[in-house]
UniProtKB/TrEMBL annotation:
It comes from Paxillus involutus ATCC 200175. SUPFAM superfamilies: RNI-like (SSF52047). This is F-box domain-containing protein.
Length: 434
């Protein structure tokens, strides 16, 4: 039976379905029936012969149907394979006239820029932009390599000595594609038991220091940071991670005739105020300073806090963590800072010493986090005196006192002390507009 014949057979009503195979003897099949006579034996024999002929015919039909089904399945498989190739060919040709292929390289480059990781410094990876974009096709690779903003951010770390030449060459190719764009670099120039020669590390970046606008520099006692911190006329944001005490007694200057540096972040072990005299980033031009100490200071370091305020007359945003002050420490003189508008400070002890000698007439945002409980008298004594001296237009206030729970009386007292307050955060449920 052919495939077409089988299809026609399946389309027509099947007489076998409604054909009855009952005989006059069918009703006796389940009964204890006595032995039949000769006439009955002859009739039953004819029925059996008929059924054998029918069985042979159905068996032949079943074999033909099975063969036809096999051929149909083979036909289905070949048709499915053909359809897959047709779809693939159609999609390939549709891709030739797709919108993204007709995008100007400038717009495609802007799309690529939006694919960059959200981190401020890109860690090279073949599974992320921009390197991933160079592996799609030749056209994308050309656009990626000709888009300088894809290559102006980089996180650099230095391997052991046998691979330093290879890695330096990779970083050179990366940064050279940025052309004249301002660079944002994170450079781990610390050795930490690595057999890397510090001067080789920093010298390899010398061709690009004049383009650096953002720099995160990790250093240790054998690093030569002055190689990276000179001839940086475009530098606007600097982050230093390491112990500033390692720089004593070298004086390191990164100033230029017209320095652009406005933001400085220091991540260091506790250090003394004298260390700041060996580092000159152009303090008078800074508008934002953040100091994060990697360990709790064992001695009073309020002098560092005060010294930074004195060094930065144009400071607007100051973050300091953390201040340690003892009751027997020398009292700092009254200090007025006319431009500071935002102060975020973590205090280990004696929060009253922090504010009682400050006058901040432009302060609008204040956050104080205290490791130890804030005395109940602080609000009515030191803080009230600070507000009276400063007469600042404070708009937001956040007090983080890990050891105490604020109550409604605290809320009412703060709002009464500060008529300009718009938002108050005392922790727990005591947060909201005033």
């Amino acid at each position: 039976m052919s495939v077409d014949a089988l299809i026609q057979e399946l389309a027509l009503p099947n007489p076998c379905v409604t054909e009855s195979f009952d005989t006059p003897y069918s009703k006796y099949s389940n009964m204890n029936y006595s032995a039949p006579g000769q006439t009955q034996i002859h009739a039953i024999g004819e029925i059996i012969s008929q059924r054998q002929a029918q069985l042979s015919d159905v068996t032949r039909q079943l074999a033909s149907a099975q063969a036809a089904v096999t051929r149909i399945q083979d036909l289905q498989r070949r048709l499915l394979e053909k359809r897959k190739h047709i779809v693939a060919s159609m999609e390939a040709h549709q891709a030739f006239i797709s919108c993204i292929r007709r995008l100007p390289p400038e717009i495609l480059g802007e799309i690529f820029i939006q694919c960059l990781p959200p981190h401020p410094h890109i860690k090279p990876s073949s599974r992320a932009a921009p390197l991933l974009l160079t592996r799609i096709c030749r056209g994308w690779r050309q656009v990626a390599f000709s888009t300088p903003r894809l290559w102006c951010s980089l996180e650099l770390w230095w391997p052991r000595l046998p691979r330093i030449q290879q890695e330096s060459q990779f970083y050179h190719h990366w940064l050279s594609r940025a052309r004249s764009c301002p660079l944002s670099l994170a450079v781990d120039a610390s050795c930490y038991r690595r057999d890397v020669r510090a001067y080789e590390v920093t010298e390899s970046l010398q061709p690009y220091t004049s383009q650096v606008a953002r720099l995160l520099l990790a250093f240790d006692e054998v690093t030569a940071p002055e190689l990276l911190l000179k001839d940086v006329p475009m530098l606007e944001h600097l982050t230093l991670r390491g112990w500033l005490g390692h720089w004593h007694p070298r004086r390191i200057s990164i100033t230029q005739p017209q320095p652009r540096l406005r933001s400085l972040t220091i991540i260091s072990k506790p250090f003394s105020p004298g260390v700041l005299s060996f580092f000159d980033p152009g303090w008078a031009n800074l508008t934002r300073v953040e100091v994060s100490l990697l360990s709790r200071p064992a001695e009073s370091n309020l002098g560092v806090f005060w010294t930074l305020l004195q060094l930065c007359p144009n400071l607007e945003d100051f973050i300091f963590s953390s201040v340690q002050e003892h009751n027997d420490a020398p009292t700092c003189p009254l200090l007025q800072h006319p431009k500071l508008s935002s102060l975020d400070v973590v205090v280990v002890s004696n929060v009253g010493c922090l504010v009682k000698s400050l006058i901040l007439p432009n302060l609008r945002h204040l956050k104080i986090s205290s490791v130890n409980p804030i005395p109940a008298t602080w609000r009515q004594e030191e803080f009230k005196a600070f507000l009276s001296l400063s007469r600042c237009p404070l708009e937001t206030l956040k007090i983080v006192d890990r050891m105490q729970v604020s109550v409604e009386e605290d809320w009412a007292e703060y709002t009464a002390l500060i008529p300009t307050l718009k938002h108050l955060d005392l922790g727990s449920a005591m947060v909201g507009p005033v």
